[in-house]
Amino acid sequence: MATVSDDELITAATDVLNPHRVGDRLFGDVGSALVTAAGNVYRGVCIDTGSGTGFCAEHAAVAAMVTAREYRIAKIVAVWRSDEGLLHVLPPCGRCREFVRQIDPGNIGTEVVLGRGNSTPLRELLPFNEWPAPLDGAP
């Protein structure tokens, strides 16, 4: 597998930023990039629509990956640029954390980039992710 650095992944996510306003909604202001266990990079942007029908940039990147018939994520990042032009790495929201986990059981070990030189495994961001044991013995 070709190694993709955090900076390269941040750049890949930054390259897809393309904010576009439609009424009071903003599309493409958050970009995400992921690298799979096979070394392929997939990217996506967020879509903010009304009534909760939109999705995060991580979802778009994961959908591109699944479309290509891959499921194991080695590393993922999301970025946003402020009105002042400052780039920020965004931690995944809870929905994205769970989404990544459910795509493949091994994704619990996905490295989540939280900044330059700062990443952590998904399991650290999504504690208590195992299905709980029953409280009582088997009936």
Automatic annotation (TrEMBL):
<keyword id="KW-0378">Hydrolase</keyword>
<feature type="domain" description="CMP/dCMP-type deaminase">
    <location>
        <begin position="28"/>
        <end position="105"/>
    </location>
</feature>
<dbReference type="InterPro" id="IPR016193">
    <property type="entry name" value="Cytidine_deaminase-like"/>
</dbReference>
<keyword id="KW-0862">Zinc</keyword>
<dbReference type="GO" id="GO:0055086">
    <property type="term" value="P:nucleobase-containing small molecule metabolic process"/>
</dbReference>
<dbReference type="GO" id="GO:0072527">
    <property type="term" value="P:pyrimidine-containing compound metabolic process"/>
</dbReference>
<dbReference type="InterPro" id="IPR016192">
    <property type="entry name" value="APOBEC/CMP_deaminase_Zn-bd"/>
</dbReference>
<dbReference type="InterPro" id="IPR002125">
    <property type="entry name" value="CMP_dCMP_dom"/>
</dbReference>
<keyword id="KW-0479">Metal-binding</keyword>
<dbReference type="InterPro" id="IPR050202">
    <property type="entry name" value="Cyt/Deoxycyt_deaminase"/>
</dbReference>
<dbReference type="GO" id="GO:0008270">
    <property type="term" value="F:zinc ion binding"/>
</dbReference>
<comment type="similarity">
    <text>Belongs to the cytidine and deoxycytidylate deaminase family.</text>
</comment>
<dbReference type="Pfam" id="PF00383">
    <property type="entry name" value="dCMP_cyt_deam_1"/>
</dbReference>
<dbReference type="GO" id="GO:0042802">
    <property type="term" value="F:identical protein binding"/>
</dbReference>
<dbReference type="GO" id="GO:0004126">
    <property type="term" value="F:cytidine deaminase activity"/>
</dbReference>
<protein>
    <submittedName>
        <fullName>Cytidine deaminase</fullName>
    </submittedName>
</protein>
<dbReference type="GO" id="GO:0005829">
    <property type="term" value="C:cytosol"/>
</dbReference>
